[in-house]
Write a structure and sequence with these properties.
45% of the residues lie in helices and 0% in strands. By secondary structure, the protein is mainly alpha-helical. The mean pLDDT is 77.
């Protein structure tokens, strides 16, 4: 499902949707974190707070 693309070859259309699900799930997590004010660029996002 994943790997280096081969020049001149396209993925079979019935594999594109399933292969996209992992990326789309990650995007949903990042969007939810941003909406909750917990994205890495948001104040109070966690991480090292020792200054």
């Amino acid at each position: 499902m994943y790997g280096s693309p081969v020049l001149g070859q396209d993925a079979p259309p019935d594999t594109v949707g399933p292969a996209s699900r992992a990326v789309l799930a990650l995007v949903d997590v990042v969007k939810a974190a941003d909406a909750a004010g917990r994205s890495p660029r948001s104040p109070g996002a966690g991480g090292d707070t020792r200054g």
